[in-house]
Design goal:
The protein has helices at residues 3-6, 9-23, 25-29, 61-76; strands at residues 33-38, 41-47, 83-92, 101-111, 115-123, 129-139. 30% of the residues are buried. It has a single domain, classed as Thiol Ester Dehydrase, Chain A. The protein is globular, with a radius of gyration of 16 Å. The protein is an alpha+beta fold. Mean pLDDT is 92; it is low at 147-151.
């Protein structure tokens, strides 16, 4: 692979997401799937299973948070730098039920040298807004070796 291709932002985003997802047992266990990745953006889907509902029969808020948080994580790590959440908030707007296909779409709304601010929306298969999430990221390093191509 040429140096120009390996530094292409889209290629870096794809390699970063693949490396992160490979080690992300929580997202895998919840059945999440990355359906789109680009620099500073990510879309993740998940189907609500019976083991994901709370005592009133709706998707547990922690599960919704986890879905949004995963999309946020993939988006803010899309440059190949090790980046973690510094804070996050969620607002639950409507309910999701067993069988609903949820999509979390994350995008950067502001980025600095070490910090970023990301908005995530979670919608169901009908496009109904289920939750909104805002995350603040903190970059720990300039480059993550997981995102590099091996020579």
């Amino acid at each position: 692979m040429t140096d120009a291709i390996s530094k292409d932002p889209q290629s870096v985003a794809e390699r970063s997401a693949a490396a992160m997802f490979d080690g992300d047992r929580a997202s895998q266990a919840l059945g999440m799937r990355i359906v789109a990745i680009a620099p500073h953006e990510c879309r993740v889907t998940m189907t609500v299973r019976p083991d994901m509902v709370n005592g009133v029969g709706t998707c547990h808020g922690g599960i919704l948070f986890a879905l949004a948080d995963s999309a946020f994580a993939f988006a803010c790590n899309s440059e190949g730098a090790t980046t973690v959440a510094a804070s996050a908030t969620v607002d639950f707007v409507s309910v999701a039920r067993v069988g609903d296909e949820l999509t979390a779409s994350a995008r950067a709304i502001w980025r600095g040298r070490r910090a970023g601010l990301y908005d995530v929306t979670v919608v169901d298969q009908r496009g109904t807004l289920v939750a909104t999430f805002r995350g603040r990221s903190h970059r720990l390093s300039d480059r993550d070796p997981r995102a590099r191509e091996s020579s």
